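Check out a protein:
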Amino acid sequence: MRKISVIIFCHNVDLYIDRCMTSITEQTVGMDELEIICVDDASSDDTWLQLQKWEQLFPEHVLLIPLELECGQETAEKIALQYASADQTVFIDVMEHLEPDCFEQLYKVAADSGMKLSERGMIRDSLEQRLRIVQFYSGTESFHFFTDQLTEELEKRGHEVFICDLDDNSSQTEHSYDRLNRFLSQKVDVVICFDGIGTREEQFIRQWDRHQAVVVDILMDPPFRFHPTLEKHPKNYMLFCCDEEHVAYVKKYFPYEVPNVAFMPHVGTFPGEDETVVPYKDRKYDILFSASYYHPQSQMNKIKDLFPDRPDMWRFYEQMFENLIKDSSLTIERAVLVTLQQFGLSVSDEMLKMLLNRSLYVDWAIRMYHRGRVVTALADAGLELYLLGPGWEDHPSAGRPNVHRLDTQVPYKKTLMYMADARINLNVMPWFKAGTHDRIFNTLLQRSLPLTDPSSWITKHFTDGVDIVLYDLNHLEQLPGIASRLLAEPVRAEAIIQKGYEKVRESLTWSNCADWLLEAAGLIREYGGQEM
């Protein structure tokens, strides 16, 4: 009898199979002691082809179970369990990467204690070191919400988390600096922050280096905004970007300062346990757009504050803005380079980085420009449109009978409740040309339909009309028709929602995010801050 049956649930995970299977086949316990059972839950990508490749490599050890109809993880694993014949059984998340001696250690623990390993999550619970982790609250309410979501997932895994409120100057509150200092009396293993908050301050850099802590920085905005943080940060620093082109940007302009940078998609949030799903036909809002709006020119005017005595810089950024309007495929970096070429300018590397860093308001202006265009296209067509967020009183559609203002400033959690009561949730990508946005994934987890412009990442991982619906910024005349057809075909819309929901549920949640961060922190600790 073999020692361990390894059960792997697979559903649209073709990108992760090779890495997972490699870590299993390289286990020190030896392949002769392993029985690997992979159950494919009616995947629509190349999952089955990837699994067959491994079956051919290890025909005596790999058993594949194809399910023609999707039945969900719990049922699929019960089916696979019927085929398990080894002494012990473990369930593996296909996105997990196992240490080489993982099964050997597990089997020894089980043999010594007489326990069975069949409970899900046993590997993580048995082998992961209990970490002491610091996170932060700040003035950004959405980051506050993200921090709470991560803390919940990290604590589920047995880690100890302290959240420091950077705006709390009192001494006795739960998240005060005094409480942080007490937490720092023992070693801190990992620091997790958003947009550099808690890593870029000099006192924190010294503190985290003293603890030899791994600092994981999640950029929710483009890296050109954060040059000072990318230039100076703690030693054991890992950066995640939500756009693959942002990763390339960091590697190009900060190759030595930030040797460890990787892509990590946004994730979505499940509804609360006390929240019931509103039937699709009974929802209040036809089309909801949860976003702020400011007139593009108001953002461009701020450039004059950056360069009060430099009309040449005003002209440069105005031309850059025009270039972005003419070609919506341009990234901010590419727009800067194109504009330099138009002006016949050759600049130093430092000057180029300065121009990129000061492109903040152009970035905001082009976002607002396209948000305005999308809303105008739907409003002009007479569709019922609901706007959630500040600034829409300044949009030309304000006051129209079919355009409704819901609220100006809503907490992130309450926004999710609004989204759950809409048939369609509109999204305009924030100029992430190869990235993601949490609005898409939140929409699907609230069982609503995302209507968004694409990015290269989105089109690679989702299929228009199958698990998402896409429109083109260059052909907004088509957008009202797309939206109208979706509203007129609820059965089709609900089918798309279900497919998208399943995809996000499996691989784009805060639970996934916690695992990615812990894995990255483990690698940084292993390599000591050097390039992995």
About this structure: The two ends are 39 Å apart (CA to CA). The longest helix spans residues 360-380.
